[in-house]
Design goal:
Shape: globular
Helix content: 55-70%
Radius of gyration: 22 Å
Largest sheet: 2 strands, antiparallel
Order of helices and strands: HHHHEHHHHEHEHHHHHEHHHHHHH
Structural class: mainly alpha
Distance between the termini: 57 Å
Oligomer: single chain
Strand content: under 5%
Length: about 450
Amino acid sequence: MFEKLFKLSENRTNIRTEIVAGLTTFMTMAYILFLNPSILSATGMDKNAIFFATAISAAFVTIAMGLVVNFPIALAPGMGLNALFATVALAGVGMPWKVALGAVFISGVIFVILTVTKIRQILVIAVPTSLKRAITVGIGLFITIIGFKLSGIMAVTTAAIPPTVEAMGKSGGIVPLQFFEWNIGMGSFTNHSMLLCLIGIAITASLMALRVKGALLIGIVVTTVIGIPMGVTHIPENAAFFALPDFSNLAVGALDIKGALSMGIWTVVFTFTFVELFDTFGTLVGTAGKAGLIDKDGNSPKIGKAMLVDAFGVSFGALMGTSTVTAYVESAAGIGEGGRTGLTAVTTGVLFLMALVIAPLATMIPNAATAPALIIVGVLMASSVLEIDFHDFTEGFPAFMTFVLMPMTYSIANGIAGGIIFYTLLKVLTGKAKQVHWMMYLLFALVVIRYLFLSE
């Protein structure tokens, strides 16, 4: 059955190799089960509900990738995209999380349309490599900031600035982030959570340096255990470590599509769509190329089908109650173990499904234990800065503006917009207009229109 379904012999592999590869992939990306609840709970969502949505969406979409496309690539709620989600739906400040889920669902529908019409492939080609790398760097910085805030290393206090009636009207009654004064400083070493995080960083960084598989997951577990005598990790009395999650507060189907359409948040939808666009393409091409499934130019008859599964996965994840589901670069770990077919992905998906029974354990993990993993992931993403050509100012400056504007303005959308504007402008002014894809000019016009005529 497996031979016929996954064409194991044709791909020069066997059942044992594929299962081991699937287990390896799961071990390297299982940290998302613990990190996602920590990040998204800032929106007011229930941690148990987020854990359930994370496990279910990762399981079913990954299994679909294996069965439909026969690719050894796993998917789950994406790092960076969940940071963006938490930012726009920050409890008491941003839009309601149900509306944000509606925006994610809409972006998934847009993905399906873009994929079927093959516009998605054109957009990926149109945006220059330097900006793609800069987007990754900027999101990495965003994730690091979240890790610092969760752990207490970065102390943030806010003071509300009364917005105008006009501004409140444009934001649908939600107080925009710009009407809060942010004071940022260093946390106190008397804070046990901060100390635990620093210990966790040392442990996780050491495991990463030693190239230990599953370093992030191991780091989270060990740090959580150390937090027990420190009084940071709290174990409830009569706690059941292995049981099905509490289904009473699940967010399945709780998304507010109507609200998303009526609140003037198309900028948010655009940002979800834009970031996911390049994140998924790069991961699919990079990991599939390593497995020998596509050529050096990224050509394969299966890539389009893989993008379609990914697109449906975005909307499915929103329906389950989580941020954007995307392909994971950690899939390369399983491929490195010999995974070549969809059986690797199916194995990983089944393991995510089985992980539902550890939900009570996951909700006990303190933010100080997951923060180190966020910071490490931020480092890994920020390393893409090495692939940007700063010797060419027309490439380096737009990239710099992209990844600096993101954390400085607390907006991934602003960073992407800045990169598009300065890249197009500098290329034209230096006589290199032919290096700019026609789609970039269209994006340039859309960004200018958005900020000049549609800004809130």
